[in-house]
Amino acid sequence: MQTVRAKAPTRIDLAGGTLDLWPIHHLLRHKATVNVGVTLYAKAEVGPSPDGLFHLISLDQETAIKGDFATVVGNHDLPLLGLLLGAFWSAQRAPLTIKTNAMSPAGAGLGGSSCLGIAVAGALQKQRELHGLTPLLGEADLIRVVQDAEAKLIHAPTGVQDYWGGIRGGVNILRFPFGKVEVETLPAAQLPGLTDELILCYSGKSRASALNNWEIFKRLFDKDPELLAAFEILGATAEDCAAAVTAGDLRQTLRLSQQEWRQRIAMWPSIETEETRRIDLAARGAGAEFSRVCGAGGGGVMAVFAPPQQHQAVKKAMEQVGGRILDATVAASGLSLEIV
Fold first, then answer.
1. pLDDT of 42
2. Which of 143, 235, 273, 311 could form a Cys-Cys staple with 31, CB 3.0–4.6 A?
């Protein structure tokens, strides 16, 4: 049996997070989501078993599971890997080893678990192809499998932007007509200077973004009038941000991303933490244009935008107040598969 290696980028959101949760977008007249894939990859390797058992190995979590198919699929230590194995494989097929490694910190707000799911699902699907098991799933169907597995695990609805960022990389605009999600993927060169200006900084404190989103979800479907009005404004700003991306206007894109971030803070002040506020003040004091916490519900990683000539000063200032600079930039492409 051959081994399949997969990697998928995580993503930062520029505008319209939370709006990608079905069916929130169908409550609103104005809606769009804009995100950018980044090179904090989720990696997966799916290959033969060394001993006739199924193996799940997470290098970043330092956790390993082995056993027969039923035991591994139902495990509680690496449950997402088990669910995806169950979705794409069976006890009657040759035992597999699934090995993963996530570069994104846990709770970063970068969609790390979703992108890890995309990498694992992509590698498992490729193994199915190598074993003559068809048909292959298209992008949307592959996403649905991973999305359903994640929703089962967290007992809450999940948005789609993380998965599309992982599959596509680049700059993504998601739109939500009835019956489908439309995704326009553009190269980073569409926004000249974006790669040069972006800095990613980890605050050191993770957040459960998806569960925070669930609280918003419940309030929206309880018909909270103030929240619905706030989301209409948020959606309109996200649409304007998407238009600026399409026009190739980086300055307007970032201005609108900052505007959307301020609207999000006003709507939900707890999306910031003491740590992220401190890092934001330090970054802007050293010459950054603005920063925003990644993840629609607030995560631990911040996207910071600064002129290239100010990067050294901005990075130093953030580190002095406890931030950790992450070695990452815009991902030129999405899910990639390699047979070794």
1. 97
2. 235
List Cβ neighbours of 184 (8 Å cut-off, separation of 6 or more): 172, 173, 175, 246
- In the numeric block, which tokens belong to residue 154? 């967290």
Q: Distance (Å, rounded) from C-alpha 214 to C-alpha 251?
A: 32
Report the topology of domain 188-326.
Alpha-Beta Plaits (3.30.70)
pLDDT at 211: 52
Which of 108, 137, 123, 139 has its CA nearest to residue 38? 108
CA angle 69, 72, 77 (to 5 degrees): 175
Using CA atoms, how far apart are residues 247 and 244, in angstroms rounded to an integer?
A: 5
Residue 208 is predicted with a pLDDT of: 54
Stretch(es) of the chain classified as CATH 3.30.230.10: 4-183+332-339
Query: What size, in residues, is the chain?
Result: 340
Q: Nearest CA to 294 among 21, 97, 13, 50? A: 13
pLDDT computed for residue 80 by the predictor:
97
What's the CATH number of domain 4-183+332-339, 3.30.230.10, 3.30.450.20, 3.40.50.12780, 3.30.950.10? 3.30.230.10
- Whole-model pTM over 0.90: yes
Q: Distance between CA 70 and CA 14 in Å, rounded?
A: 41
> Measuring CA to CA, how many Å separate 101 from each of 58, 63, 201?
6, 11, 20
Name the segment(s) of the chain with CATH classification 3.30.70.890: 188-326
Which residues of the chain fall short of a pLDDT of 70? Answer: 206-212, 296-299
Q: Cα separation of 297 and 265, whole Å?
A: 10
Q: Give CB contacts under 8 A, 24+ apart, made by 174-178.
A: 174/16, 174/20, 174/32, 174/33, 174/34, 174/35, 175/31, 175/32, 175/242, 176/19, 176/20, 176/25, 176/26, 176/31, 176/32, 178/26
**Nearest by Cα to 14 from 213, 324, 259:** 259
Beginning with the edge strand found earlier in the chain, give each strand of the sheet holding 290-293 in spatial order. 290-293, 301-305, 198-202, 324-326
Estimate the share of the chain in helix, then strand, then coil, as percent rounded to the nearest 5.
Answer: 45, 25, 35
pLDDT of the residue at 46: 98
Q: What is the pLDDT of residue 4?
A: 98
